[in-house]
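Training component of the fellowship. As part of building independent skills, the fellow (R.M.) carried out the full modelling exercise for a liganded target. The chosen ligand was 2-OXO-4-methylpentanoic acid. The inputs are recorded below so that the supervisory panel can assess the work.
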Amino acid sequence: TSGGTLEFAVTRNLAAKSTAEREKILANPGFGKYFTDHMVDICWSATGGWHRPRVQPYGPIPLDPSAAVLHYAQEIFEGLKAYRHADGSIWSFRPDANGRRMQRSARRLALPELPVEYFVESLRQIIAVDGSWVPSLPDTSLYLRPFMFAKEAFLGVRPAEKIAYYVIASPAGPYFPGGVNPVSIWLSTDYARAGKGGTGAAKTGGNYASSLLPQAEAAEHGCAQVLFLDSSEGTYLEELGGMNIVLVYKNGTIVTPESDSILEGITLDSVLQLARDRGLTVEQRRVTIDEWRDGVASGEVTEVFACGTAAVITPIAQLKSDGFTVGSADAPAGELTLSLRQELTDIQYGRLPDRHGWLTRL
Ligand code: PLP
Ligand code: COI
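Fellow's submitted model of the complex:
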């Protein structure tokens, strides 16, 4: 299942949106609401490996009611963006890292590993047909969503022998309605996202399913995201429902939780590199919730931010929970937070040199 090239059969969407319809969507895309005209898919079977790569019109996927994914959630996904540079060219950010992470997720979910070259090629294929969907307004992009699931019709509990891999694409503006305005975060004390030995480090739907109820609780308390602590002691920071978390200390030190039950964010890894490049100290270690709470109170912790593909870098103004509040909802965005966000997006949009070789032309 590695090496070789894939020949994609292309079926054009005859009902593709008109230029006017597309332009209207691209002027105000929101997040995850609209989809491009095509999708990419590749099949896998235990006997035939990866086969039948296709580009076809975006639309419903035929699925047997007994398809394993509908019962046992054997599913993984990825998320990355395509950025339009000033000269019109289209680039993605570290797609090989997403491809490798998808392989790690696949291993955990007993799914086949898509070769990284196929992963990157599948992104090129969707851009080849739907490149006009990559918006060009500031801070917009085309969000790419590769995903893989068990489609075998069979109710026994074992790894499925028929798997589908797809890529869909959705024009994106800011994930949070307020854009880069600081958000409030809700600390969930009743629920955990993932446990030791579980699937927390994999990008699999079940982790997000289990975050929905606590996320709804966060929304009820006026918070944009839920923060999870480790499941065994309820003491150490893990991550948000869909983002990693970073604390900035008064002396410029950057601290982010170390845990084997959180997603290894590619945005986080990149931000830590940019911080190291600036000569800042970066610590990846266990961080208690008290370290955050007391640190903000004493002025030791000066900024907190969330990071991820969808969120980019979003300042966190306030942490709320039953019985305590840290920070204030109208606290301004931190200086380092904003400057790291600026540097990261300048690289992604081609406004600064790509000194780490992070960009891949699609
Ligand atoms: N943590 C979770 C749970 C996520 O869903 C995401 C988003 O993909 C991240 C972290 C950040 O990962 P990345 O920066 O690779 O998008
Ligand atoms: C991403 O950032 O790509 C995610 O998958 C997270 C989700 C909040 C959309």
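The panel noted the following from the submitted structure. Residues 79, 242, 308-310 surround 2-OXO-4-methylpentanoic acid (ligand 2) (CB under 6 Å). The chain has a mean pLDDT of 95.
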